[in-house]
Amino acid sequence: PEEFVYGEEDFVLQAAGWGDPDSAPSRFDRVLLAGWSDRMERGLFRYRLGPLPTRVLPGPVRLVAQLNEQRSAERRPPQPVHSLRDPFDPGAFNFTRLRPAELLFRLRRTGGPGPPPDPLLVAINASPLERGHVLLLPEPARRLPQVLTAPALRGALEAALLSAHPGFRVGFNGLGGGASVNHLHLHGLYLGGPLPLEEAPAEPLGPRLGLLRAGPAPAFLFFAPGPAALEPLSRAVCRAAEHLAGAGLAYNVLATRGDPPAGPGAGGGRGLRVLLWARR
Fold this sequence. Notes:
This protein is of the alpha+beta class. Helix content is 18%, strand content 25%. The protein starts with a strand and ends with a strand. This is GDPP1 phosphorylase. It comes from Pachycephala philippinensis (yellow-belllied whistler). Residues 27-188 form the GDPGP1-like N-terminal domain. InterPro entries: GDPGP, GDPGP1_N.
């Protein structure tokens, strides 16, 4: 695939507002969405994604409910999980089997801050949840199992900063936490509205770390005010995730633009919130 080469000057430190989220797409947004739409027109997805019935459920958590019947019926069946430490299985479906046309581009950074993360392949998710739903893949030939690594997370967080859309989010589902393929991957997708998790205040646990209770389940909240903080944050998130896995707990990760852990108006600008949930 073609390379998408970027530098620190390509990071969008302040995304567009929710009043007009598509007003000024970044170079990353334009390339990703154009490639994604092209593959949709060429029939490379398992189904054609149209407008989806969506509403915010009443209640303090304000859960977003969306009906996507085609994904439920036509997605590839998830692989069975026997252990949180399941090794990569070359006999099962994995991302070395993607068709070349499913690959959009390869992300590669040059210059600072710090050493660049490992390149990530950006591929379509053939069973999309939303428009622009892509997979962020460390080199598939390395055949890494679905265990989050700091280099992969850092590369995905940099991708989040390349988007000017306030609803571009990055997520990770671990084994036992909703992962359907045991081959290291993260998700990126555009969501059409704000989430309470972007601004809800968290109980302080340490510098740029809090416990967020304002959600469907408590989450550890890590915060990066800018690109220079992504490397130590990625290491901290992965250390915490490894601790959870060692205790027999699956986990999920979500990265979104948002306020510092103390919430809006507490001083400091917006950055990236990274939430880590433990699963039983």
